[in-house]
Design brief:
Blueprint: E1 3-6, E2 12-15, H1 17-33, H2 36-52, H3 60-102, H4 118-149
Antiparallel strand pairs: 1-2
């Protein structure tokens, strides 16, 4: 089942309602937990837990509370953060693909880097290293020539 909603610049967003809801939840959660206030709140909870230690005689239950809570939060945050990272990466790649497509003289080979083998990526990386070295050598020769003219 697919739905549409108005997106950025009037573009339609498509996908399941569950997928859209999860994306919105993941985005908002990552925005909130990435704030200084969230960090301070987490630090305050740890301080309160430590201060409660003597009251609970540093029992196994006292330790279990923080261990269980942090394990559950960490487990769930992994999925939320991964979702946000995947989406950010995908949108960044699409933006770069559009720039490559629009740039004159750019290699369209770069549009499909995600699907290249590791060996192909290594060869392409070496090719760009050679181009860099050639450009650097030309710049150094040019700088030396300019010094001699002065």
């Amino acid at each position: 089942m697919s739905t549409s909603a108005a997106g950025v610049n009037g573009q339609k967003q498509t996908g399941s309602k569950v997928g859209q809801a999860f994306h919105l939840f993941a985005k908002k959660t990552s925005e909130v937990v990435g704030t200084p206030a969230a960090f301070l709140g987490a630090g305050l909870l740890i301080i309160l837990w430590v201060l409660a230690g003597p009251m609970y005689h540093y029992s196994n239950t006292w330790q279990l509370v923080i261990n269980t809570a942090t394990t559950i939060v960490t487990f769930l945050m992994v999925f939320l953060i991964q979702n946000t990272q995947n989406r950010d990466s995908r949108t960044l790649h699409l933006k770069l693909d559009e720039l490559i497509k629009a740039a004159r003289g750019a290699s369209n080979l770069l549009l499909d880097l995600d699907h290249m083998s590791d060996d192909d990526l290594k060869r392409l990386e070496e090719q760009y290293k050679r181009l860099y070295e050639e450009g650097r050598s030309r710049a150094e020769r040019s700088a030396k020539a300019n010094k001699k003219e002065e």
